[in-house]
Write a structure and sequence with these properties.
The chain is an alpha+beta fold. The chain has three helices and three strands, in the order H-E-E-H-H-E. It has a three-stranded mixed beta sheet. It is about 35% helix and about 15% strand. The protein starts with a helix and ends in a 6-residue tail after the last strand. A hairpin with a 6-residue loop joins strand 1 and strand 2.
């Protein structure tokens, strides 16, 4: 079982997950159990697996993932040092 899978198993049952980016989960928020994602890992995945340019990856994240709000259990996105 990967580290991401262990984190996913420990999330609140109401926590929202971004489809296709399980490996980008780096933790959970302590009080609510929301998923915490690495923005750098998400961008790296978009660039590597989806063959997007750096700017296209940033634009896609900003317009389709990072700005989404689906209520109290919406994931948290942070810049961290865990990306390549």
């Amino acid at each position: 079982m990967t580290k991401s899978n262990l984190i996913i198993d420990s999330l609140s049952e109401d926590a929202m997950i971004v489809d296709g980016y399980d490996d980008c989960i780096i933790g959970k928020e302590y009080t609510t159990g929301r998923a915490v994602y690495s923005i750098g890992k998400i961008l790296d995945q978009m660039i590597t697996l989806d063959s997007l340019s750096s700017q296209d990856a940033i634009d896609h994240f900003d317009h389709n993932i990072g700005c989404a709000y689906y209520g109290d259990m919406t994931p948290i996105f942070i810049w961290d040092d865990s990306a390549k």
